[in-house]
Protein 1
Amino acid sequence: MAKATHLSLFLSLFYFISVGNLISANEQKTWCVAKPSSDQGTLTANINYACSQVDCRVLQKGCSCFVPDNLINHASVAMNIYYQSRGRNHWNCYFGNSGLVVLTDPSYGSCIYQ
C-alpha cells in the first residue's frame, strides 16, 4: 500500500512540475513581424488580409504606427495585430512563410506593439 501511495504522490508532483514549466514557457511574450526578405506583393497581401480581419487604424496617416511609411513596417504592424488577436500561435504568424515570430519587442517611438 505504501508503494502505491508514494507512486501516486510522485506522479502528482511530476505532473504539477511539468505543467508548471509548460505554462511558464508559454508566458514568454512574442510578436510577429514580416521577414525582411518578403517581396512587395507578399507584404501588400499580408496587410490586406490582416487588416480585413483586425482593426489596423494605427496604420492610418497621422496615427502612431504610420511612420515609417513603408510596406515592411506596415505589414509587420498589421501581421502582429492579427497574431496577437488570434492568441499568439505560431501558425497565426505564418503568412505564407513570410512571418517571423520574435522575442524582442519591435515597438518604436509611439508605435507600441501589443
Note: The chain has a mean pLDDT of 85.
Protein 2
Amino acid sequence: MAMASFARRKAYLLARNFSNSNPDALRYSFSLTSFSRGFASSGSEENDVVVIGGGPGGYVAAIKAAQLGLKTTCIEKRGTLGGTCLNVGCIPSKALLHSSHMFHEAQHSFASHGVKFSSVEVDLPAMMAQKDKAVANLTRGIEGLFKKNKVNYVKGYGKFISPSEVSVDTNEGGNTVVKGKNIIIATGSDVKSLPGITIDEKKIVSSTGALALSEIPKKLVVIGAGYIGLEMGSVWGRLGSEVTVVEFAPDIVPSMDGEIRKQFQRTLEKQKMKFMLKTKVVGVDSSGDGVKLTLEPASGGDQTTLEADVVLVSAGRTPFTAGLGLDKIGVETDKVGRIPVNERFATNVSGVYAIGDVIPGPMLAHKAEEDGVACVEFIAGKQGHVDYDKVPGVVYTHPEVASVGKTEEQVKALGVDYRVGKFPFVANSRAKAIDDAEGIVKILAEKETDKILGVHIMAPNAGELIHEAVLALTYDAASEDIARVCHAHPTMSEALKEAAMATHDKPIHI
C-alpha cells in the first residue's frame, strides 16, 4: 500500500509539472500611489495590476504581482493594511484568546504544576494594549513589504469608472484615478446584520466591538455558534463573563464533523459556556441599562426573555461588493453579493478579477491569500492552483478544533466505502505530561485504496497539527503513509500517527 501511494504521488507531480507547461491542463486541478510618503506615485500611469483592497488576499496579491515583475498598485480605504483579519479579526482575536487563556491557566491550572501565588487579576487596559501593539507592528510590517517589493500604495476608497480605471477618494480628502491593465477586486467581507438588531458597538456589538470592550460584561449573549462567536465567547468567558450562545440551527459549527462537534460542545459546556440551540431572536430592547432579548423556538412556540449586559452578533459575514461601481462596468454578482469567477479568477468583464471573500468558497484569510497568488500567476502568464477541498479550518478556542477534507457525514453522502481511525489525546504521552489531554484525532480513509479523505483534530494547538494532514491530502497520501512516518517522541503529533495506524491497521498505545 505504501508503494502504491508513492506511485500516486509521483503521478501527481508529473501531472502538476505538465500543467505548468500546458495552460489548458490546469483545469484538472482547480476544485471547485500616490500620496503616501515613501511610496511611488501611480498618477495617470497605467499599472499592470491594480488591487482594490489591502486585506490578506489583496496585499498578498499585490506583493506577488510585484515579485513577478508587474507594475502594481494597491488601494486600501482603511488607512492600514491587513484588512479585517489583521486589524479587527484574526490577529487581535488570537491575541485576546492567548492572553485570556494565560489568565485562566493562572487561575485554574498553575497550582497543580507547583506554581502558587496569593491572587491574580485582569488588567484589561494592559491586555488590550498588548493586542493593539501586535496589530500595529504587523500592519507596519506589511507597509514595509510594500516598499521592499515596490508596490504603490493608495490610501482611499476606490470604485470603478471603467474596466481599466478606478477613481479613488483619498483619505486626505482628494481624488485620484488609478489605471490598470488588470484590476483585482479583493475587498473582503463585512459583518452580516440581523433583521431588527442595530449594532451600536457598545451594548450590541459585532466582532469588532467585542475586541474592544472597556470592561468585562457580567452577562454576554452571543448570537451565532460559529467560529467567531465561540472564540469571542471563550475570551470573555475566561475573563469572568457568564456566556450564553443562542443558535438558530440544531448544532454548533454546522460545517464541523458531527462526532467532533458533539465532543467539542461538551468541552465548551464544561468551561461553563451555555447553549440555546434551535432558538431564534425575535426582538432586542437596549433602551435600559442592559439588553433584553426576546427568544422563541426556531420551529415556533412560546416566547422567553434573556437579559445581558452585552450582546455579540456573530451570524456570519457578507461579501463587501456594494459601492464599488460594479454595476457601472457590468460585473455580475449573485443574490448574496458574491462575484462569480472562472478557474482563472476572471469575472465576466475582461481584465477584471476577484478573489477572497467576495467570491464563492470558504471565507478564510488563508484561502484569500492562496486566491491572490494564483490569480496574479494567471495574469503573469503562469499557472495557479487552489484546491478548496484542501483548505484547513480552525476554531481557536481551547482546545482548538482543526479539520481538512471531508467530514464523516459528507463521506457517507458520497456513498464511498471508508474506514475510520481515532486516537484520544488522553493516551498521548506529551499531552499527559503537560496535563492538557482533552481531545481526539479522527481520520477518514477510502476503504479500497486507503486514500485519506478527511482529518479532524480537537486538541491544544490543533491548528498547528493539522498541516501534516493538509500536506497528506494534497499529495493523495494513504493513512499508511502517515503511519509509517517517524514522529518525534514525545509530541502531540504522535496522536496523528496513531490515528493513522488505527485507520490502516491498529494503533500501539491504546
Note: Confidence is low (pLDDT under 50) at residues 10-43.
Protein 3
Amino acid sequence: MKMANSLRGEVLNLYKNLLYLRRDYPKGTDYFKRCLKNVFLKNKDVKNPEIKELIGRGEFVMKELEALYFFRK
C-alpha cells in the first residue's frame, strides 16, 4: 500500500506543477486546465507500472513547457 501512496503523491505533485505552468500557456489558462484535467481523468484507472511511464511522460511535457516559456521571454 505504501507504493500506491507514493505514486499517488507523485501524480498529485505532477498535476500541481503542470497546473502552475498554465499561467503562461499561449492558448489561455482555462484551455490548459481543461485539457490537463481531461488527460488525468482519462488515466485515473491506470495501474502500476504504467503509472510510472505516464509520470515520466508528464515530467517530459513539463520540461518542454518550461523550455517554451523560456524561449518566448
Note: The mean pLDDT is 91.
Protein 4
Amino acid sequence: MERYRKNLHPNFESQETFNVTINCRLETLIQLDQVEERLSSVMSFTINWRDTRLDWTNDILCLVNQNVSAPLPRQAFFMELDKELIWKPSITIANPHSPRYMLSDNIG
C-alpha cells in the first residue's frame, strides 16, 4: 500500500470503463401521501466496485510458484483494510421536496 493513493480514482490514468454497482433496498415504508405526492421511507444502499490497485493475487501466486513446496497462505487472499485508507466513490442523495435533506459523503 506504500504507493496507493486513496484520493485518486482507480482508473485515473486509464481509458477503461470503471463499474460501480449501487443496490437500493426499501427497508420501511413510513408514509405515502398521494395528494402531496410524497413518500417517507427508510432505505439502505450497497455499493460495490473493484479497485485493482488493491489486488495482490498475482504477487501471492508468484511467491507460491517460486516455492512450490510451501503451503498456500489462505489469509493472504482475504484482507480487511481500514475504510479510511481506500478510495471510495462520492455519493450524494438529495430530496427534491426539501433541500435541507441532502446526504453526502463527498469528501473534498
Note: The chain has one helix and four strands.
